[in-house]
Design brief:
Blueprint: H1 2-26, E1 69-72, E2 75-78, E3 81-84, E4 87-91, E5 94-95, H2 104-115, E6 120-127, E7 133-138, H3 145-151, E8 156-157, H4 159-162, H5 174-177, H6 179-185, H7 189-205
Parallel strand pairs: 4-7
Antiparallel strand pairs: 1-6, 2-3, 3-4, 5-8, 6-7
């Protein structure tokens, strides 16, 4: 009888031990295992972050610069306009007579003579109100075409655009000779209108 009681107590002890061991084993965590407390956890990746390339900003993008120098043979349009590489270029800082104005054809052929046989280098400065490219134009020997035309008395300085750099090169009486160009610089376009009307009337009589 005593032996039976001892065996029963031993069996009960074994069962209690096994039960406690299984419960404690279920709550064990591995060394690298995180215990969740029910709240979302923030984890930091050890991998290097990939930098995002900036988005293209069309509104603030700067366009690629256009060519600032043209060089080549020149086709002469009139006394202050040439064409280089299919680009119409106006001589910087001077004003020559229009082709149909007094001395207009003479100015054109003087510029033809200057450019003939030379490559002309045009250093672009701006665009004028007519969309023409304005440039300082030089011959291969360094001569400034604007200055040369003024020295020939077939163009006058246009101070509004040149700052007066060619005024000292003007021949005496050049502004009286090129009076229509002078009138344009002074904003007296009515003089042009009167001249053009007179020329039209003369052509109609012929």
């Amino acid at each position: 009888m005593e032996i039976a009681i001892i065996l029963i107590l031993a069996l009960v002890g074994v069962l209690i031990f096994v039960n406690r061991h299984s419960q404690s084993g279920g709550n064990r965590t591995l060394p690298n295992q995180k215990v969740s407390d029910g709240k979302p956890s923030l984890t930091t990746s050890l991998a290097p972050r990939k930098e995002q390339s900036p988005r293209f900003d069309a509104d603030n993008a700067i366009p690629a610069p256009i060519a600032t120098v043209l060089k080549g043979s020149a086709y002469v349009v009139d006394g202050d306009t040439i064409v280089i590489q299919k680009t119409q270029v106006r001589l910087f800082g001077v004003d020559a007579p229009e082709i149909n104005h007094p001395y207009g054809k003479k100015a054109k052929w003087a510029l033809v003579s200057l450019c003939k046989g030379h490559a002309v280098k045009a250093e672009i400065t701006a665009k004028d109100n007519h969309g023409r490219t304005v440039a300082k134009c030089y011959l291969e020997d360094g001569r400034d075409l604007s200055a040369e035309m003024v020295k020939l008395g077939l163009a006058i300085d246009w101070q509004k655009y040149s700052g007066g750099v060619y005024r000292a090169l003007e021949l005496p009486g050049a502004r009286k000779k090129l009076w229509l160009a002078d009138a344009r610089q002074k904003g007296r376009m009515k003089v042009w209108e009167q001249y053009d009307a007179k020329q039209t009337a003369l052509n109609q009589k012929q």
